[in-house]
Amino acid sequence: MALKVGTPAPDFTLPSKPGETVTLSALRGKKVVLLFFPAAFTGVCTKEMCTIASDYSAYEKLNAVPLAISVDMPWSLQKFAAESNATFPFLSDFNKTATHAYDVYRESFALGLVGVSERAVFVIDEQGVITYAWVGENPGIFPDLDAVKAALA
Prior knowledge:
alpha/beta, Glutaredoxin
């Protein structure tokens, strides 16, 4: 079962661009939106990341930093971020450390592939506590981004 509201957010350090990492605890003082998604370049994942990218200024106004997280390789994620017109970090959880820490590991995906992240959203407050948690019932469910923004307000 995924982490609940009121739980301290597990810290992680994940690669973003090759040679760069992002550490969650380094973002204390800002709200963070963790956007776990199963796989780059798939339909719902593309829609989700493009939607966040096109509305990025709304997250900035709420003093929030979106972080996209999947088990894809950093190089694939940079291409995916570019094609999504995203300026926020896309983080590679190739080793599945954050996926397991947030308990959003999905055993089976599509085409017989196993071991991806669930589609999930966590809002973390300035002190590092989870204030919103949502996990999709299946990878095809799109998150309620209005609820995410309401949790940030």
